[in-house]
Amino acid sequence: MGEIHPRPHALLLPYPLQGHVIPFIHLATKLASNGFIITFVITESIHHQITTSKNQTNHYKEGGINIFAEARKSGLDIRYATVSDGFPLGFDRSLNHDQFFEGIVHVFSAHVDEIVGKLVQSEPPVNCLVIDTFYVFASPIARKYNLVNISFWTEPALVFSLYYHMDLLRINGHYDNYGISSISLW
């Protein structure tokens, strides 16, 4: 009777592209508004882009950028952390997309595993992992730390439907891939 349950503490990790980060920012605010403790984790390169953006100067404080400053002022518990994507800041991710993607698939997961391990030991401990659907390594990390694993799709429903029905688009001739030896959506 009257058992007190701790507030859920979710770690949110978007794919490091603006079109993925913005929906995660909205989700973080929404979840925090509903009683969640949020730890928002982005890559150091995205953090660097945000801190050097001229549009963000009004959020800049001594010690770094604080994209959740206004949310915290209203009482929301949103924390902010960065993680290495395995590449130096000077590495041009857009010009070397294939190499960057390979690093995200094969190296980044170790960095994510490390930060999740630290946050599971923090107070209060993280007990929920909300991660971009584009990451293929979420389930093993969630299982390792006994976390609730939630895959968050950031793109419009139409894009999901196209991915899901790509085979039908090919079969019915709506998507012509003649001369292309292999197609990979992921």
Automatic annotation (TrEMBL):
Transmembrane segments: none
Keywords carried by this UniProt record: Glycosyltransferase, Transferase
Molecular functions (GO terms): quercetin 3-O-glucosyltransferase activity; quercetin 7-O-glucosyltransferase activity
Record family assignment: Belongs to the UDP-glycosyltransferase family.
Listed PANTHER family: FLAVONOL 3-O-GLUCOSYLTRANSFERASE UGT76E12-RELATED, GLUCOSYL/GLUCURONOSYL TRANSFERASES
UniProt protein name: DH200=94 genomic scaffold, scaffold_3062
Organism: Coffea canephora (Robusta coffee)
